[in-house]
Amino acid sequence: MVSERGLEVLRVIVHDYVASREPVGSKSIVERHQFGVSAATIRNDMALLEEEELIAAPHTSSGRVPTDKGYRLFVNQLADLRPLSAAQRQAIETFLGDSTDLDEVLGRTVRLLSQLTNQVALVQYPTFSRARVRHVELVSLGDGRVMTVLITDSGQVEQRVVDIRTTVDESFLSELRAAINAVIGGRPLGEASAALADLPARFRPDLAAVVGVVVASLTEQIAAGRQDRLVMAGAANLVRTGDDFSGDLYPVLEAIEEQVALLRLFGEMQLDAVDVAASIGRENASFGLSQASVLASGYSTQGSEVARLGVLGPMRMDYSTNMAAVRAVARYLSSLLAER
Amino acid sequence: MVSERGLEVLRVIVHDYVASREPVGSKSIVERHQFGVSAATIRNDMALLEEEELIAAPHTSSGRVPTDKGYRLFVNQLADLRPLSAAQRQAIETFLGDSTDLDEVLGRTVRLLSQLTNQVALVQYPTFSRARVRHVELVSLGDGRVMTVLITDSGQVEQRVVDIRTTVDESFLSELRAAINAVIGGRPLGEASAALADLPARFRPDLAAVVGVVVASLTEQIAAGRQDRLVMAGAANLVRTGDDFSGDLYPVLEAIEEQVALLRLFGEMQLDAVDVAASIGRENASFGLSQASVLASGYSTQGSEVARLGVLGPMRMDYSTNMAAVRAVARYLSSLLAER
DNA sequence: ATTGGCAGTCCGGCACGACGAGTGCCAGGC
DNA sequence: GCCTGGCACTCGTCGTGCCGGACTGCCAAT
User: Per the confidence metrics, is the pTM higher than 0.90?
Assistant: First the structure.
């Protein structure tokens, strides 16, 4: 069983190792922190910690380094996050100040988060499926081609060009536009496809084919829009972190570019909109990120729906500060999106 | 003056160094290539090459390595690019097969190019300013807010939400839409802003303010749209290339993320739509990329306008193959975009 | 102009030893 | 029962010296 002081020792080991990047020994602990006991006593505690696999020695008789499990316990113990500095709060305000476009807001958010934490920042686009259709627009492009634009109440816009192979007049387009909006306007995307299914049958046979093509395109568009997307910033920070990724940051860069793995990871982390969750080291093994840690939190757009944002970095990172930054940015983003 | 054989020697030095990543010496040259002369002769040629600063020795009495100048001469000599393999041509066809959306096409293109070359691939969005306005759409979102959608003939779509603070009815919106399209429909973006300027004055005074807000938003949108954008893929290849960036690939990753530097670089490279240009090593110094080389070519969208695409990698790359890949992809992309 | 030979230079790897940091353990003190 | 000081031991690191290998540069001969 690990004693109370043992936990304190773990805490300072994590802290010092994060700061110095070097294995920390019993002697340096007693001289850098007031423990009121001797180095030998600390050594005993460290022996226990090692037994519990919370810390490990890179080689016999050298300082100790936290294991994934150690970081995990450290993070769990982390009751109150270090609040941000005034300058940082300021930065959030000015950086996200006023923006209208969703793309713009998320783009700024991800850059901000990356700057605050000096890590790779990730922001997921609001998941589409719970959003509602606000409007569907049809625009004739000439040459028998029509552009369909799908606008949701979360402010997202998806457009697509569909080839209908015949020319249609503007009045038919208006009619079709009205019909489509009547059927799916205001409905959640999840239900929209089904609702569209019987639309072609309501038109004259010679037009049904065209309607069918447009509906098929919209259906596809809805499905495609539901695929989650991710914006990312700060990849350069990965290499700046020194040799934390022990030479093979290839899988990390790959995962970032793939996005799929990261989205799955975001999905599997248990998140509500208030807390910041962490996934540490081997907990990410199935995503090829067993050297990395991911901190994430949810943020809410207008409705109750929740998307995610967070940072990715080496296990050896400043969890306290970074989790505080993630939380602050998530909250600010939520409030910003709520008032739109 | 460098002899004919001297140039040949430079060629094999570049080739062997690219392949083996090791400085190449006179002895290994004569045994790997049929020169019909002895190593000592090659050494004399190499001394000349070194005098011209086309090659350099990392340390006294070791093999030679091409300098930027050497690569440059090598590339200039490169008359005929190595044609792509059948498999590669196949890959281009299937990868870019059928796609409608511009985003989709460029996304696939950049991934393809990255795979073909094993380098970081970059594709610039078609520059907007020469594109023409195809259609402007106004969509009421309720709550006194209107979404403006700008569609160009290059297939790009930019949307933006504008807060008009009053409720307007659909008929006014139709009227405004018609007026806007009448004024700027079919005109190049460069002229559109000016053409819009006197639009508010043509409406009833109580509506002019609203028109003014919408027009201002559109003007901004046009300006924002003209900012060039870049899509990128294959950043993971940077680290895979070994230690070519001698530990400091931070500036490279940074430049990739910033985009601005790369766009400037693309802009400064002299490109027409047929040839592939190269910018090597210190030629990129002002962009923080003095360790890297960039290969780029132009591609054309419908009109005559030209955007750019290319790859970025270490100086030590296979110029012949990669330039062929860039050229092939640029050509295929041009033809694909022409037939839309 | 080309060649073979030879001396000189430098890198990389390896073994060796000194040093220092840190541990584990034990006997003794509170 | 917990803490402490001391001591032996283990390793990693760093500097040194040494050797082999791979080149080059130069020169005299062809």
Answer: no
